[in-house]
Amino acid sequence: MTTFSQKSCFIILALIISPSVSATRASKFQAEKPCKRMVLYYHDKLFDGTDKDKANATSATVVNASKLGNSYFGMLVVFNDPITNDDKFHSPPVAKAQGFYFYDRKDTYTAWFAYTLVFNSSEHKGTLNIMGADLMTEKTRDLSVVGGTGDFFMARGIATFQTDTFQGLYYFRLKMDIKLYECY
Amino acid sequence: MTTFSQKSCFIILALIISPSVSATRASKFQAEKPCKRMVLYYHDKLFDGTDKDKANATSATVVNASKLGNSYFGMLVVFNDPITNDDKFHSPPVAKAQGFYFYDRKDTYTAWFAYTLVFNSSEHKGTLNIMGADLMTEKTRDLSVVGGTGDFFMARGIATFQTDTFQGLYYFRLKMDIKLYECY
Amino acid sequence: MTTFSQKSCFIILALIISPSVSATRASKFQAEKPCKRMVLYYHDKLFDGTDKDKANATSATVVNASKLGNSYFGMLVVFNDPITNDDKFHSPPVAKAQGFYFYDRKDTYTAWFAYTLVFNSSEHKGTLNIMGADLMTEKTRDLSVVGGTGDFFMARGIATFQTDTFQGLYYFRLKMDIKLYECY
């Protein structure tokens, strides 16, 4: 028995001492298992400049495209967009996305986003802060969730975008698969 | 005694193996006890366009508001604002806040900030990078400290904003309560 | 022997229990040893507005400088800039930097950056998201790597900028020393 307990202690030692230096991260992250996951829909209805669109529009172009290339390079949009649990624009929003995007490629469409998901519902109160490149021509693309507050205190993770539909410049819908890998 | 050491080893096992998967985060965070806290005042003195304001102004509107709504939707301001330890604009600055904000709501005032606190004093050298929504109508609101350099190497935390005073568009002061929960 | 195993168990206890509260961060970070390091060159070739520059330019001014000060305060540039392993503009790019910068000081030159390094090569696939102040008058300055995706899943670290060369406003090259201290 003495031998057993000695051995088991050495096994414990091996288990602990080695990970304590380098594997902190491994224990934090299980790729298959985010600590929190939400699939959300983002609706961007760009203001067309007409009076009758003022009630419905959720975003506005505030900087026009430059003359570089032919794919809106530099056009910058500020948004306050509804976030819903399904793909219906008129579903009750579960959050708002407040932030901006701009187009940033000469020859095809890519964009760059920075925004805050503001939750204020019975289910969640708090924010998630997100930034990254939206490589629109790829089926899915990953942005970074760089911080959170309230229910999402100090969260980090990945926001995977997928274009769900679009109608020219003036309406598009993204499926945002939010996976948090650091939760407090 | 053999039995004791066996038992104690099992207790150790229980203590270690279970937290190693899920509790790393809990040990990192103690809500009541940030590893570093600073209460700072941010002064934004928006350039009014006149020559005599050039010396005092600390920020400038670089993108005008869109025609969407009546609360400056899309107006974007670049700032290089003094940060002081008390609420006096003329106190010696302990840091500069360099970045931008824009207004992003049609029917009331909300803004979105991204900026760097640049410290270069005898007390602190380094930067903190901050982003998030400023829901101005709420008494306090939380943004994310997403990174730091120098004395604040790799820091993360929360920046809680509180409007201390404002004079129309052209001067406002925020109390910024910076709480770091990850310090190296 | 019994005594030994008891002692060794207590030693293990001491090793584990104390760090579990406060030293997670220490084990994550070894200042001398990033978990990943890359020295890269960033080339910004600002569009001069002429037709013949359209092919070469990699960035465009989308917001003109304000009238505050004499150092381009508020001028905002959107870029899609090549990243190379050496300082040659025509070397095959190993990544693209997509994002923006703006100038933000009245009396000298400082800028603020937020961008994504997009890697799509045989060596790396994924992105790094970076933000912070570029205090151009200092020899080196540190920005924050606030997140990553793909090969750089959930990474954090520091991006140290050094001006390698510049030709007025229309071309500059930065050496970007990317040091990741959190890798998964």
From TrEMBL, chains A, B, C:
The keyword Secreted appears for this protein: yes
GO CC term (a single one): apoplast
Record-linked Gene3D superfamilies: Allene oxide cyclase-like (2.40.480.10)
Record-level GO BP terms: phenylpropanoid biosynthetic process
Protein location: Secreted, Extracellular space, Apoplast
Protein role: Dirigent proteins impart stereoselectivity on the phenoxy radical-coupling reaction, yielding optically active lignans from two molecules of coniferyl alcohol in the biosynthesis of lignans, flavonolignans, and alkaloids and thus plays a central role in plant secondary metabolism.
Signal peptide: 1-23
Keywords: Apoplast, Secreted, Signal
Family recorded in the similarity comment: Belongs to the plant dirigent protein family.
Name this polypeptide is given: Dirigent protein
Oligomeric and partner information: Homodimer.
